[in-house]
């Protein structure tokens, strides 16, 4: 049995606006084994992205705990969280989040700035872009790339520090069907190579690829 690389315990997230408390999550507990492909699904606005942000240490829960590889993420300082994200987690977002004034190669290299291994950044970044089929686009800026190509640059950047976990928030939500198929093919290959992949999506076709599907409705795990 695989060990659990991600665990959450009774995660609650509330926002207070105009003296009104709004619940984004209402006690979410889940476990994700190492090396699996999981999806978090559910209607828009019901807590999917909030859950991913809490798992990745991009936000803090109001109550509850998050564990990454046995480490209690919710007890870490800001600098410890930054180190954890740099070493253990790669993020891919719907809108790519590439730096528009940098080339594809430079965008991937930027993710290595905080790496403990400071050698051969250019060579490694070039290899990662080749891995996602972009060896001929090293010097292209985002405006010169298609949506699918930009997302593949984002995936290469997420792999920059060889993380164990890839967290992806609607990674194909902005792509046409051909680009979506390309990107999903690369994600599937990464999973086969041992990465733990967690995708937030409302796309049923992506959910069909997953070994585990967690449905979020009204901030709760929908167990039906």
Structural class: alpha/beta
Query: What is the spatial order of strands in the main beta sheet?
Result: 6-7-8-3-9-10
User: What is the helix fraction of residues, given as a range?
Assistant: 25-40%
Largest sheet: 6 strands, mixed
Q: Per DSSP, what share of the residues sits in E-state strands of 2 or more residues? A: 25-35%
Shape: globular
Q: Report the C-alpha radius of gyration, rounded.
A: 17 Å
Can you count the helices? 7
User: Spans of 5+ residues with little confidence (pLDDT < 50)?
Assistant: none
Report the span from N to C terminus.
25 Å
Order of helices and strands: EEEHEEHEHHHEHEHEE
Mean pLDDT: 90
Number of strands: 10
Describe this protein's structure:
With 224 residues, the protein is an alpha/beta fold. Helix content is 32%, strand content 29%. It has seven helices and ten strands. The protein has helices spanning 48-55, 78-88, 104-110, 121-131, 147-158, 177-192, 204-209, and strands spanning 4-17, 20-33, 37-41, 63-68, 71-72, 89-93, 165-169, 196-200, 212-217, 220-221. The strands form two sheets. Strands 6-7-8-3-9-10 form a six-stranded mixed β-sheet, with helices on both faces. A hairpin with a 2-residue loop joins strand 4 (63-68) and strand 5. The longest helix has 16 residues, at 177-192. 41% of the residues are buried. The model has no long low-confidence stretch (mean pLDDT 90).
